[in-house]
Specification:
The structure holds two protein chains of two kinds. Chain A is an alpha/beta fold. Chain A has helices at 5-8, 20-28, 41-44, 70-84, 107-116, 127-131, and strands at 47-53, 56-61, 91-94, 118-119, 147-151, 159-164, 170-174. The longest helix of chain A is centred in the middle third of the chain and has 15 residues, at 70-84. Chain A is elongated. Chain A is built from six helices and seven strands, in the order αααββαβαβαβββ. Chain B is mostly helical. Chain B has one domain (6-246): Ferritin, core subunit, four-helix bundle (Ferritin), CATH 1.20.1260. Chain B is built from eleven helices and no strands. Chain B has helices spanning 6-25, 34-62, 68-73, 84-87, 93-114, 120-148, 152-166, 170-173, 177-184, 191-208, 231-246. In chain B, α1 (6-25) runs antiparallel to α2 (34-62), α5 packs across α7 and α5 (93-114) packs across α10 (191-208). The chains are: A alpha/beta, B mainly alpha. Chain A binds chain B through residues 63, 65-69, 96-101, 125, 130-131, 150-157, 161, 175, 177, and chain B through 21, 35-36, 38-39, 42-43, 45-50, 52-53, 120, 123-125, 127-129, 131-132, 134-135, 138-139.
């Protein structure tokens, strides 16, 4: 041990307790995506792993898009929420592989997207849905399937812009990736 | 060994994405419609994010104290390894979309090859990027069809854009010896396969709206892979790098 480590040592390092991970998952379920503040990072499927390593909580987080400007904000929010819940200095690892897919958005997340006015991704992110024709998207306002695609790119990289031909409302569609 | 082989390849991928992304950002506030504004910025954002992934890996291999930001903002044009195509000015919307389409078709084919790279880091970055670039290619090919098969005016613009950019496609149809060696080692995408896939995509899209396919571009006197650029790159970098160079300690 070096002099000084008594003071400037590893802040808050401790052995894990029984309910730590369950508690941490519950905290993460309250951390919302800054762009879609009704869907948590857990429902979004970007928290890939949660464990205990070297006295601290250790998380693996995957970004949704390579250039998603919310990545740093989300990581900061996660860190802050965990610190406040009594998990000092959690370690966040950003991992690209396997690449995030909209298939990982939970059922609850999809329902919340719809309630928020964003049509959830339709079908799986297979090559066909990436390259093929536009999927059948239902209007999140009135439920009509009579909709059209206005632009492949909406208010953020993860959304396309659609319009309902029944209620005439424009809406975002969370596209398959 | 990496510094002479793998790093230049990562810079080709990263610098091309970065410069293309920067060019797209020049449309910010000037796009013909709000939907196009959003799309152009979103594609640009994807590309800048991908560039960061490539440049971070390059910086780790170089291990000379520079990070991805230093590579992006403190290298001069002769140290940039991007394709000549992407540094060309945006011109009108037909030039912008033709440039995007040529680049996307190349980019898509390269990433398809890289997903199977035996360098796991490269395969991971490519798998992520490929999903995004699939949407880019779909959009830009649709624009080529819409403009090429649209009004007399839009078709004339396309017929002017294609020959203006065609000479730079010599870099998309083939690669350097270094890339060939890396491909043989299972690390890089095979430049011959990429060139064939590129030509097939361009040929099919052009044929669908009866745009004439020029004969293959021949040798060009500059070479982006060697850092020999057109004058446009220096001007682009001057703007992009101004702030970090003028205020080296600036942070967000």
């Amino acid at each position: 041990m070096q002099p000084g480590e008594l003071i400037a040592g590893d802040r808050g390092a401790r052995a894990p307790r029984g309910d730590d991970l369950a508690r941490a998952w519950a905290v993460l379920a309250q951390v919302m995506d800054p762009e879609v503040p009704v869907v948590s990072v857990v429902d979004l499927g970007i928290v890939r792993d949660l464990g205990w390593h070297a006295g601290h909580l250790h998380l693996v987080v995957t970004p949704t898009y390579s250039g998603c400007p919310a990545t740093e904000v989300i990581e900061g929010d996660i860190r802050q929420a965990l610190e406040q819940a009594g998990f000092p200095a959690p370690a966040l690892e950003r991992r690209l592989t396997p690449a995030w897919s909209t298939d990982w958005i939970s059922e609850l997340g999809r329902e919340r997207l719809r309630a928020y006015g964003i049509a959830p991704p339709q079908g799986s992110a297979s090559k066909r849905s990436l390259l093929g024709e536009a999927p059948q998207v239902c209007c999140p306002q009135c439920g009509s399937a009579h909709t059209e695609l206005l632009s492949q790119f909406g208010s953020t990289a993860c959304k396309a812009l659609c319009r309902c031909r029944e209620c005439l409302e424009p809406f975002d569609y969370f596209k398959c990736i | 060994m990496h510094n002479e082989t793998l790093v230049p390849y990562l810079l080709l991928l990263g610098d091309s994405a970065l410069v293309q992304g920067q060019r797209l950002c020049e449309w910010c506030g000037r796009a013909p419609a709000i939907e196009e504004e959003l799309a152009l910025m979103n594609v640009g954002l994807d590309l800048v994010g991908q560039a960061r992934n490539w440049l971070e890996y390059a910086a780790e291999l170089l291990d000379d104290g520079r990070d991805a930001d230093a590579l992006a903002f403190r290298r001069d044009e002769r140290a940039y390894r991007n394709l000549l195509l992407v540094e060309q000015p945006n011109g009108d919307f037909a030039v912008t979309m033709t440039k995007q389409f040529f680049y996307d078709a190349w980019h898509f084919a390269v990433l398809q090859g890289l997903v199977g790279s035996n360098d796991e880091r490269i395969a991971g970055i490519a798998a992520k990027a490929l999903k995004e670039v699939t949407y880019h290619l779909r959009r830009s090919s649709e624009w080529v069809q819409r403009l090429g098969g649209g009004t007399e005016e839009s078709r004339q613009r396309m017929l002017a854009a294609i020959p203006a950019l065609w000479r730079f496609t010599v870099e998309l149809a083939g690669g350097s010896d270094n890339e060939g060696h890396l491909a043989q080692a299972g690390i890089a995408a095979d430049p011959a396969a990429v060139g064939a896939a590129w030509l097939k995509q361009v040929g099919e899209t052009f044929a669908s709206v009866e745009l004439p396919l020029p004969k293959a571009a021949s040798h060009f006197y500059l070479d982006g892979r060697k850092g020999l650029h057109t004058e446009h790159l220096g001007l682009l970098l001057a703007e992009m790098q101004f702030l970090p160079r003028a205020y080296p300690d600036a942070t967000w």
